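Form 12-C: Joint structure prediction
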Amino acid sequence: MKIYEKSPAPSAQRVSLFLKEKGIDVERIDVDIRGGENLKPEFKALSPNGRIPVLVLEDGTSICESMAICRYFEASHPDEKHLFGNTPTEQAQVEMWNRICEFQGLYTAFQAFRNLTGIYKDRETCIEAWGVESKNRIKQFLPQLDERLASTTYVAGERFSVADITAYITCQFIKNLEIDASTYSHIERWLDLVSARPAFQ
Amino acid sequence: MKIYEKSPAPSAQRVSLFLKEKGIDVERIDVDIRGGENLKPEFKALSPNGRIPVLVLEDGTSICESMAICRYFEASHPDEKHLFGNTPTEQAQVEMWNRICEFQGLYTAFQAFRNLTGIYKDRETCIEAWGVESKNRIKQFLPQLDERLASTTYVAGERFSVADITAYITCQFIKNLEIDASTYSHIERWLDLVSARPAFQ
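Section 2 - Result
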């Protein structure tokens, strides 16, 4: 079993934090994304959408998409942490908050960063005005996250979950957009809490 | 238990098809989104991100995000259909393909539609050039989906899953962008197959 990734990339970090939380060690192979290694046929044969990270199982099955990789390990290595929630209500709350943090947070931040910097302009059309708008939307999202964290210990409730990993990665990534999430007091309290976890060292 | 929704909206339809597949009947209440009913404090108290659909449980817990609502019913009403997959590998493949169809399909189509039509310009900044680019990305995604469906019966493999619901809703929604997915022969074969299911009548 191997994971092909670009280790500093936010999506690789999501998988990495998840595996550290679960105490699972998997061989990693770095892929040169800037150099376009992921656009070559050998890599495309591994990853159905040509993106990293990709988990390749012993039987040759490839799994891309960070959350799909995390779900594979959650289903194959169930434990008492229940990072995707335990009861039906908790599972739904984790899925809800993970998605809110993805769509309004992480993916909006990706669109802001890619369109503003043109980092992949050799392979995609960038629209600077959409970068500006996406950055504004991130700024509108942070007070919502702060309000949520005013009433709960963790993002999805009273238990640490994959939604905290997504929100944490978002708060780290938006530093590239010169946005500091820790200026919000409840987010700051929560960032201190999750940053102290052994997996986050 | 109640679901607040706008019944013709793609996200409400995803939940609706999922519940029909599982044979679960839930009371529905229509919310006037165009009229801004979802922006009022009463609705915002129900939905953490002010969006529909929202499931409100008997104990008052609110769950928004379509996939979180579907996961609630999957966990509370498990059955032999395993719409989110059964084994760890299958669960991961369903999550992977559902996400590929969401990010490259449905959400890209939403961004194209909202930015091109300005349907919600009273509440969001629209960037027409991003609408054009998003529409181009949908057109680039369809051959990928077609290639996938050349080798598998359903989107995530040999079993019908929630990924088929997402892909089907995408194919329906992009008609609003004057894109006809059925011009791709493998997509056409699969659309005929899923459209014939009782839940899709």
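Section 3 - Comments
The longest helix of chain A spans residues 88-117. Chain A has a mean pLDDT of 95.
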